[in-house]
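Dear all,

This email documents one entry for the complex benchmark we are building for the journal club exercise. For each entry we list the sequence lines for every component of the assembly. Then comes the predicted three-dimensional structure of the complex as a token string, followed by one or two observations. Please use this as the template for your own entries, and keep the labels exactly as they appear.
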Amino acid sequence: MEELQAPPAMDRLSALAAGTVVPAEIHPELQDEEMILEVADFNLSYGSKQVLFDVNLPVPRGKVTALIGPSGCGKSTLLRSVNRMNDLIDNVTITGDMSLGGDTVYGRGVDVIELRRRMGMVFQKSNPFPMSIRDNVTYALQINGERNRAVLNEVCETALRGAALWDEVHDRLDESALGMSGGQQQRLCIARAIAAEPEVLLMDEPCSALDPIATTRVEELILKLRGDYTVLIVTHNMQQASRVSDYTAFMYLGQVVEYGPTAKLFTNPLLKETEDYITGRFG
Amino acid sequence: MANLNSLGYSRPAASMLARGEPMVWLTGAGLVVGLLMVVSLVAFVFLRGAVTFWPATVLRAELTSGIVAQGEVTRTESFTPDASFLSALNAADRDRAEQEIKHGHGELKRRLVRIGNFEITGEHFMWVEDFRIAPGGEKYPEWLVVLERMSWGRFYGTPVAYLANGEVVADGPAAAWAAFEAGDRGEHAAEGLVLRLVTSGGQLSDIEVSEIVRGYRGNDLDWADKLSLYVSRWHEYLTAEPREANSEGGVFPAIFGTIVMTLGMTILVVPFGVMAALYLREYARQGWLTSVVRISINNLAGVPSIVFGVFGMGFFSYLVGGSIDAIFFADKLPNPTFGTGGIMWASLTLALLTLPVVIVATEEALAAVPSSMREGSFACGATKWQTIQRVVLPRALPGIMTGAILAMARGAGEVAPLMLVGAVKLAPELPLDMTFPFFHPERSFMHLGFHIYDLGFQSQNSEAAKPMVFTTTMLLMGIVLFLNAAAIWLRSRLTRKFSGSKF
């Protein structure tokens, strides 16, 4: 058997493991960007177990930002904190704040419903609603009180074209969405998320339940959305992060370790730990 | 040894038990036993119920004692006579009985003959032992007719004349019968028409045609005649009101009452059950209190139904109904309007009885809605109620429908509580009719389940009522089957609408 090399850079990793807050290495290129979402000193605990430690993460407008890191590092929790999905879970303690377009997310008197309407979310498993394709896509508008059929139809077509699904389903918009294939369902969920023109599109491992062909289509879609939408995507697939994102944040044990332009992070990271993770030496 | 593993042990063959072979047989046997019991019950009821309306042959038995018994043979059986039975016979009869016993393995044969003519004989049925029949005394006369009448039950006799307003217009069996068959009968018949018949005792008896529901020559029926008679009796049974203490005529009010009561119950129980389950599953904080509530609901399903009947009578009929009477129908008191059993109180009582079924089924259905769907809805900015209304309920609808179907089946077959809250022996006034206000929730009603009980255990003419018990049971099972099939059809339509074809 090949002899194991000594785990690299033990000092930083063991500090993280001990729960000590170590400030993230943030690349200077990010200073040139206009930020739409800013996470500031964000801590989150499930009961007595702290999951996120003093996270600071600015998300640039119109760009695709990927969160990578090993399982359990808190990247999904962070994503779900942005649209306050963690409110649905009992026993969650939060300190710190985020701001979306300058408005507080966790401050006093925030209307969570209103806040969520400014964001779209795509989940790990596609979750179309038990209704027609058309009603699925226009769901956000309908619950907002939009009843004008012409408006709804127009939004439906725009969103489905945006999600590269229009050509496949335009002749069966009134059929149940549950009859579509897995890949189509996930693109439908993306169409549903972009139908309300969200300021930020949150994607939680959107391709993990898809086959390679469907994954390719969704990735192409994400590349197409870049520029028009701000995308924050969680992925455990590093090739995917390198293919679709402009910026990447590497998270480990509830903290952001390094955050910078994807090309730079993957080829020339500032920290040895990042390189070790990306090259598969731990995680 | 081919089966050596890396450590050098041979892998032992899996035992019979480990392979699960005996379990397959055991579970299969459990299913077979259950199915066998259900199938034999249904088959028994069906076989006995379906033949009730098939016309029987009409026997004329001239007995050695000089008595003549004539009527339909309803049953044939063998019995073992005891000593006192034999010693009570006269010498000649005993001789022949003993002869028959000797040849028939110690048993005697007897037939139950429906002799009818109740106003003359005072009996509906008579046992005729074979040895009592005089030699050559067993006859099936061509002109012996059976008359089904509005009152007094059936009449058996031979027509002799047909009279109009006291004057004979047709004389002799053939002519009289032809005249009778040519005219209308029952309520459509003209006044003053009379059919004169001679009974088994040789007595003349005049029967008004308007009293006759149906008449036929029992021994002169070919296959098609019997079939048309059978169909006509079924038609009467399904569409007419009962006669003769429910042992004759139809059960239409009971069919109607059963369906209206069951549908009313379903309409009442489903919204309440769904609301309760929604709160319990979606809004209430899950803890020991919700557990206690859940256990209590499950226990409620085990309370004897008669207890619900007593509660319904005390609470709905006397307290709520009594209060309504005191406020709105004070002028009619002391005669109660709402303050007694009625179809609304019965529906409410059964709704209470079936509430646990609906709550449990709905809770299961709600719990089965994937949380990812709820999250997806919340992420779109939906409120809790919007999520429940647009995503959770449609998805849970098939499961909720299953609960409604179970509740319906349970409620339709319930009898005991109904006896206390409004089901009666005879209620020709339907709860829904053409007089204002069309729906009469205060009216008492007939119910097939109660009808079965009444026929089987409360009838003075039990021999005549007995076959009707099976027919009515068959009908009730058919109605429950029909209601369930309709609900299942509805559910599968909804499932297709909401769940797509893929999964």
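Observations: The mean pLDDT of chain B is 87. Chain B has 16 helices and 13 strands.
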